[in-house]
Amino acid sequence: MKHALKRKLIQIVAFGYSNPYLMNFKGGKLYQGKWKQFCNPGLNCYSCPAASLACPIGALQSVNGSKNFTVSFYVTGLLLAFGVLFGRAVCGWLCPFGLVQELIHRIPTPKFKLKKVFLYVKYVVLVVFAFVLPIAVTDYMGMGKPAFCQYICPAGTLEGGVPLLLANGALRQTVGSLFTLKMAILIVTVIGCVLVYRFFCKTLCPLGAIYGLLNKISIYGLKVDGHKCIGCGKCRQICRMEVDPVKSPDSAECIRCGECAKACPEGAICVGFAATGQKSERQPS
Amino acid sequence: MDSRAKRVARIAGLFTACGFVLYGALRGEVSVVLNKAVNLCFECIGLG
Ligand code: SF4
Ligand code: SF4
């Protein structure tokens, strides 16, 4: 099977197991079963009527901001496990919102690259919105708000906000300026994703930031055989995450999609669980 | 990072992850996650 098709199928299956309760869209209800105590490895809003699992970033903030706990060991542990096993292969293969962005990017328009400085914004978002604000800004009961969900997350607006407001007239009465802000962020994100491949992943996603840092040690990895590489640069040219896999096989931006391995005329790149534990050295020219 | 250091980091990471999950579950974090996830989150949908 062609590599791109295989990846797309796995992304669709991941989207399906993350959002199987499609009937809930009709009544504007949420799935309320036990699966929701587990976190999805990818970003998927738990206020989406179809969602089967908890969103890891939402769960992280809600425990961080809860009355009884300051930091969530449970969610941090799950994220660490996903990250050590897969790194950003979660983004490339399993994240529902990653798939949504790839589909949006298919809209035919001129495409652009981002300046490198924007790639660092997601680390600021992670620290400030997932940790500092939920822990530090609390109400009279000592509870913090999930600041990333509240002020930024376009996945929540798209998967939860829009369908629930469409289905529920009473909720529509409560729409205010916060919803306007979130709709504006969603529209900017959608336009960004049309023009730039995975705009949200590159610039804003706190989950991508965590997995990106763990790409350095993840078991699912990328290896370049320095003896086979002829330095033609085809891998760098094809990479839509703007990574040079020869120079930085463990780059925090690499979503392990495997496109570079497919493009390499010498078969010098290996992506997967087999591409692990070996040093990647460039062929001396 | 050389391959030995990576191996050590992976093993340490996985053990830490298991320890964190267990500790978090034992002190009752799972019910906080479940409770948040099964109820409508007004912040997520832009109303809270
Ligand atoms: S960066 Fe975030 S939204 Fe993008 S694929 Fe990774 S987890 Fe999903
Ligand atoms: S370096 Fe290769 S595997 Fe990584 S994102 Fe780019 S094309 Fe995909």
Fraction of residues in H or I helices of chain B: over 70%
- The strand line-up of the biggest sheet of chain A is 1-2
**Which geometry of chain B do the CA atoms define?**
elongated
Catalogue the unreliable spans of chain A: none
Number of helices of chain B: 2
- Considering residues with a beta carbon less than 8 A from a beta carbon on another chain, report the largest interface and each chain's count: A-B, 64 and 39 residues
Number of domains of chain B: 1
Average pLDDT of chain A works out at: 94
Biggest pleated-sheet summary of chain A: 2 strands, antiparallel
Unreliable spans of chain B: none
Number of structural units classed as domains of chain A: 2
Q: Kindly provide the radius of gyration of chain B, computed on alpha-carbon positions and rounded to a whole number of angstroms.
A: 17 Å
Overall pLDDT of chain B: 94
Global structural class of chain B: mainly alpha
Biggest β-sheet description of chain B = none
Shape of chain A: globular
Helicity range of chain A: 40-55%
Question: What's the helix-strand series of chain A?
Answer: HHHHHHHHHHHHHEHHE
How large, in whole angstroms, is the Cα Rg of chain A?
A: 20 Å
Overview of this protein structure:
The complex is a heterodimer of chains A (285) and B (48). Chain A is built from 15 helices and 2 strands. Chain A starts with a helix and ends in a 13-residue tail after the last strand. The relative contact order of chain A is 0.14. Chain A is mainly alpha-helical and 285 residues long. Chain A has a two-stranded antiparallel sheet with strand order 1-2. Chain A folds into 2 domains: 2-213, no CATH class; 221-275, Alpha-Beta Plaits (2-Layer Sandwich). In chain B, 71% of the residues lie in helices and 0% in strands. Chain B has one domain (3-44). Chain B has helices at residues 3-26, 29-38. Chain B is built from 2 helices and no strands. Chain B is mostly helical and 48 residues long. The chains are: A mainly alpha (285), B mainly alpha (48). Chains A and B meet through helix 3, helix 4, helix 9 and helix 11 of A and helix 1 and helix 2 of B. Bound molecules: iron/sulfur cluster (2 copies).
